[in-house]
Amino acid sequence: NRVVALIVAAGKGERAGGGVPKQFRAIAGKPIIAHAYDRLAQHPRIDGIVIVAADETQLREALGDRPLLAVAQGGATRRLSVRAGLDAIEALGGADIVLIHDAARPLVPSAVVDRLLAALEQASGAVPTLAVADTLVRKDDGTLADRDALARVQTPQAFRFADIMTSHRAWNEAAEPTDDAQMARSAGFPVALVEGDPMLDKITRPEDFALAEARLGQRLF
Ligand code: CTP
Ligand code: MG
After folding, report:
1. ipTM of the complex as predicted
2. Which domains does the chain have, with CATH numbers?
């Protein structure tokens, strides 16, 4: 079973601000993209890593001599960036399983990868999720949404490679999807939910960098 990790790192990080895209800023002295790379590369089931970036020179500077199977050119949306990465994997001869991961989630616990790969024995895709802590209301009329029926979705998201490739090729909805599980479901493939981890929360806004650094200091995966 050939397992490839695909890290999408071609966003501009507009909400995080700071001049340089968030995935190239450092926490604990190491670029965020390098944290994500190292956490995935050390997993014994992951055979290689492909990264999608807008600027390959900037990526190589951040990663030093870490090996890559391929670097793909980013697209205008996350979906198109993932697609570029999937096409690059296919050009390398494909894979059995692909783990699609946001570069903006630097801290990837091995146990989450274990749960995703185990779930793929039964399903076509698997995603890490967390319960919602806050009360949820509808903005139009303030009525309560059923929190227990909802979950927050993280990455990495694991898929059988052939199925996610099919899902991307079939996607024809007007709205841009925010993750790949939506696309797999839309194409009719079953996606399992596994327990995620707060460590995997995405760096989105300026205050999230310090939070990720604190989490990194608190726990050894
Ligand atoms: N991403 C990408 N290509 C895009 C847009 C996003 O590869 N055209 C990647 C980002 O680099 C990030 C992940 O998708 O790792 C999740 O996206 P998000 O958190 O929205 O990052 P950005 O789009 O960079 O941030 P923002 O939306 O605040 O500009
Ligand atoms: Mg974005």
Report:
1. 0.99
2. 3-218 (3.90.550.10)
Does residue 78 line the site of ligand 1, with CB under 6 A? yes
Task: Give the residue, by CA position, lying nearest to ligand 1 atom 23.
Answer: 11
Does the beta carbon of 10 lie inside 6 Å of ligand 1?
yes
Indicate if ligand 1 lies below 6 Å from the C-beta of 126: no
The alpha carbons of the chain give a radius of gyration, in whole angstroms, of: 17
Could you give the angle at which helices 78-91 and 161-170 cross, rounded to 10 degrees? 130
Q: Which SS3 state, helix, strand or coil, does residue 210 take?
A: helix
Alpha-carbon separation of residue 180 from 79, 149, 186 (angstroms): 8, 20, 10
Which residue's CA lies nearest to atom 13 of ligand 1? 102
pLDDT digits (tens, 9 = 90+) for 33-92: 999 999 999 999 999 999 999 999 999 999 999 999 999 999 999 999 999 999 999 999
